[in-house]
Amino acid sequence: MGNDTQSCDLCINPGGAILWQSALCRVVRVDDPHYPGFCRVIWNDHVREMSDLAANHQLLLMRVVFAVESVVRQLFNPDKINLASFGNMVPHVHWHVIPRWQDDRHFPEPVWGSVRREGKAPRPVVGDEALAQAVSVALANIE
């Protein structure tokens, strides 16, 4: 996984509940009660930027992101999906796949912005196993 793996949080920890993984990347669920279905797609090796990946790996990673987006849309029925790639704190390209609802805590701001309301509307309840199964089906032909 590259250099300095002993001090890298995403080398030591999966980054969430693992839903799917391959030799190159993994899909994890973020434990955030306000945003059920919030997932991350994490490149396993130390690579900071998308443009540092080989072209075939760029395409593969985005295929995974798009598959996860589709599954989250299907299972959670959000009003919008936010895709974000920051990686300011870890040397792993990773994408956040975040379901958004017009009445969520931060809408229309990003989930890292100021809380605008309590956002207590009920959301679909989908357990890790069901979400993992749906992601696995969506990614059955990847790689």
Walk me through the structure.
- The chain is an alpha+beta fold.
- The longest helix is centred in the middle third of the chain and has 22 residues, at 55-76.
- It contains three helices and five strands; from the N terminus they run H-E-E-E-H-E-E-H.
- A hairpin with a 3-residue loop joins strand 1 and strand 2 (25-29).
Query: How much is the average pLDDT?
Result: 92
> How helical, in percent, are the residues?
25-40%
Overall 3D form? globular
Helical/strand content category = alpha+beta
| Rounded Rg | 15 Å
The major pleated sheet works out as: 5 strands, antiparallel
> H/E series, N to C?
HEEEHEEH
What portion of residues belong to β-strands?
15-25%
What's the helix and strand layout?
Elements: H1 9-12, E1 17-21, E2 25-29, E3 39-43, H2 55-76, E4 80-84, E5 94-100, H3 128-138
Antiparallel strand pairs: 1-2, 2-3, 3-5, 4-5
Summarize it.
By secondary structure, the protein is α+β, with helices and mostly antiparallel strands. It has helices at 9-12, 55-76, 128-138, and strands spanning 17-21, 25-29, 39-43, 80-84, 94-100. Strands 1-2-3-5-4 form a five-stranded antiparallel sheet.
